[in-house]
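Question (not urgent): is this output format expected?
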Amino acid sequence: MADSPETSIESLLRTLAVLPEVRWYHLADPSSAALDQLAGHFGIHPLQVEDCRHRRQTARVEEHDNYTFIVIKALHSGSGEPASERSGAGTRADLNSTPEGNPGDHVHAAGTQPSVRPRFEDFDVFLGHNYVLTVDEGACSLIPAVAKRVAADHSLRTPDRVVHTLVDAIVDQYLPALDQIGDFITHLEDRVLRRPSPTTLREIFRMKRLLLDFRRVATGMREAVNGLVRRYDSGAAAVRRQDRELRLYYRDVYDHIVRVLDFIETYRDLLTGSLDIYLSAVANRTNEIMKVLTIWGTIAIPFLVVTGFFGMNVDLPFQKNPHVLWILGATTGALALGIFWYFRRKHWF
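Got this back:
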């Protein structure tokens, strides 16, 4: 006898339960048919199901009659599992990849630490009145850490507090990633001052693109968290009385994101300064090269003039003198030394 749909969905929920005491379910494969079953059971709109399957969504909060749909941008570091074992749906950024290679290639620059590869991926949350459904693509290291924290604190075992713990844990990953980026920028500034090169210039522009991506994600997250603050400030009917104080905790998360944006702007200014230093260093180097070439070209003028005259097919003074070579050599040498002495006196080199 075949299982009834109710039995099937209950079995699926038991399989996806993160903690036995909490109605928190996690689905690691948004392309599976299980998502359709869960959507039918919880009354999730097909558009949100489509958003879960089509990644690269903007961080946002959408209120519905019986649930709230939240898209969070989780940061996945490149250190750890190989990039080939993860999906390429997220936004990738490599601090130190070659322009010809893939953005996710792990490359080492000369004298640098291993490159950091922050990558943002969608982390979808459905917050219902008495359940939380999270959807992610691939194995997420965030889930075990948050589950351990929720299991250790009984006050976190409500759907709203589980979602806040998830959002807080995701935003807490941003600042350490920015610290690594800041260390790399400091090293990049040293390289610009010591020996500017086209490779350094490429890395500066790569870093600017990375920070632009980071800023776009952080701006979306700021608006999403602001939406959650308004949700608990307004005292919506779906919010339990004991969970309304979460507005204070979400304001703290909001402050963290504002700090992230401040750091991003600071690092962008540092990169702009490094770019100006690079262009000035290259221009100064070009001027030095042109100055040396000009000086040596000017010193060589007497030799060119004299040899040009005596290369003509006409009679010239001293042409038949047996010592003409020594006379011309001494004359041109004296002229060259005179020019050299004049340049030195003018402090042109």
